[in-house]
Amino acid sequence: MLIMETSSQNRLLIKNGKIVNDDGMEDLDVYIEDGIIKQVGRNLIIPGGTRTIDATGKLVMPGGIDPHTHFELEMMGAKSADDFYKGTRAAVAGGTTCVIDFVLPQKGQSLLEAYANWREKADGKVCCDYGLHVGVTWWSPQVRKEMQQLTTEQYGINSFKMFMAYKDAWMLDDYDLYCAIETCAELRALPQVHAENGNIIARNTEKLLAKGVTGPEGHQLSRDEEVEAEAVNRACVIANQASSPLYIVHMMSRSAVRALQQARARQRHVLLGETLAASVGTDGSHYGNSCFRHAAAHVLSPPLRPDPATPQALCEALADDDLQLIGSDNCTFHEKDKELGKNNFCKIPNGVNGVEDRMAILWQKAVNTGIMDPCRFVAVTSTNAAKIFNMYPQKGRVAVNSDADLVVWDPKLERTISAATHKQAVNFNIFEGQHVVGSPQYVIVNGRVCLDDGELRVVEGFGKFIKTAVDSPAVFGSAPAPAAAPAQLDVSHVSNGSPSPDLGNMT
Ligand code: URP
Ligand code: ZN
Ligand code: ZN
Ligand code: ZN
User: Fold this and answer.
1) Rounded CA separation 36/40 (Å)
2) What is the ipTM of this complex?
């Protein structure tokens, strides 16, 4: 039950900090009332009795937006351990104030029914605001109609995820993928793909098992970089044929990034790429660990890569705008669930932690090393997600009238990441033992101080569902949608090369 706070508790002044937005930094104070930023400036005149946070030496940034989580997801015979309470509580602890989870219908299940299930699971539990993407895991005229319904004001969905892997579960063949992407283009919704070649993975898995390779090391061996890069390229080609923008989730390798760069050079529509905290924060060497629990805990798809240059290359891709954002793909499983694959790597439920450590890991790997500046950090952890998923400038910006979702970031705060102290539901952390410098000191969710000088004070059910409208200007440009559906055969896609996505001019 939510207890209404007295009005003076609904007012907050953050003084003496340095505000960081994606396009600049400035020493300014921020005044918040009733969950909204009301004033930004110096020498603000504010009501008496307002709580003041002194942010001297700290950065005041938009709260993180994690565009990729899976809370309470049933997959591969198990259910992910972080539910919408524990998952969003961990998010807030790490500086993230909004997550976007995936509704994933079973094959044959109504998308509307799955959407209703997800809202029911999440609404009463979330500690911060959240949005939803919807998976298109099968194809039929009904699915097409439900996609249209989901993009209306009533449901508030503007993105759909399709899988090119998980054969016999969520995978679509190329014909169905083309239909789904084409439908997104007609609806001015953003198609997202999980890019891996599911047929190659299936055959490689058979061959590895026949040779007696049953342990977690088989996971990476069955799906190397080429298997990811091929699917990235194919997804881009299909999107081009459908005259559609495209968003590739969880890009895990240098080969995949190269494939996206090459497609961008020849295609007209916006192509967006997301990487993960896991892939910038650790690597595929863990699959060789002789401890099953340890190796299996790192199993996600696409997998972590053995190439030790991968984490730095992905940070550089984020810095250079080859990739636009970083998510967590948080999908944690208890040890007993990972053990479903004890004798067969392809039965290990796929997923890792990251929702809590995403911001600190990227800060450590990319800002502390000089690969990116704090403005780009804000862009890839928050603002770009807000723009792409049409939540901007309500979210993703420190500015008057934006939601008071803020992080007071202490760039000097030192800590060591550990399952012993994290807030996630599982007792394993893929970043165990990593020393990071830079973490949140205060996290403000809709004006409420939910991390208070390091003390976590979240409220279950305090968050709300954010409906997102289609036709995001960051994806489809600012020109009005054409009256006729655009996804007929369109000869213009054989043209001069697409712009690198321009997420910069939207203030
Ligand atoms: O291994 C992963 N990524 N698990 C979550 C499901 C998905 O493919 O995103
Ligand atoms: Zn995926
Ligand atoms: Zn171990
Ligand atoms: Zn995922």
Assistant:
1) 11
2) 0.95
